[in-house]
Structures are given as structure tokens and as C-alpha cells.
Amino acid sequence: MIESAHTRWPCRAVLLGCLLVFLWSSWAGAVTGNDWRAMSAPARTAYVTGVVDNFVDVGTAIRTLVPAEKRTASEKMVVAFEECISHTPRPPSQLVAIVDKYIKDNPANWHGRMSGLVFEALRCRETPAAAARKGE
Question: Can you give the C-alpha Rg of the chain in angstroms?
Fold first, then answer.
């Protein structure tokens, strides 16, 4: 009897752990611009740092594993984001300030997923002058 109860504990612990991960990931995936506005400064910094780290890691993986001519439009956008962030390193406080400004300037998007809003706020955009130079 003791042996049976003892062997059930690891199974229950694994199930409990899976449930907690599921519940946490459900909340983490649901962060919107409205949620962002209610976050504390340290939470905003942690959130932006995590999103940027993930986009950079995925961009690096895509660049390493997928030949440029075979990349989808989405993959190209993530690689461009990774290259932009890598070429213009900024401290987390500056990244958060950029995201804060983007959120403040775009209230129509507050209902959207925050990870996408971070991407939009921080991605490099080609200036008209740079586009004109490319065309020469």
C-alpha cells in the first residue's frame, strides 16, 4: 500500500505541473495593449525583454536554418526584426519607452496582442530617403 501511494505522487506532480504551465501560458498569451497599460514599470521591462529575446532567437534560428530564397514573408519579417535589433542595441529602458510611446499613439490597437504591438513598435522601418537611395 505504501509503495502504491508512493508511486502515484510523481504522476500527480507531473499532472499538477502541466496544469500550472497551461494556466500560466494561457494568461501570458492573452496580454493586450489594455493589459500593458495597467502593468508596473518592472513588469513592462520584463515583458518587452522577453518578447525581444524571443523574436531575436527565432530570427536567428530562421536565418540559420532557412535559406533566404525559401523564407516566407513572416520569416523575412522576423529575420529583419532580429537584424534591426542586433544592429541597433538599446537598453531595456529605451525599448520600453519606445513601446510606451507606440501604445500611447495607437489607442485603436490597445485590444491587440501585446507581442505584436511590441514587434510593430520596435521594428526598423525604411525611411523614404533610404528607399530612394535603394532605387538609384
Answer: 20
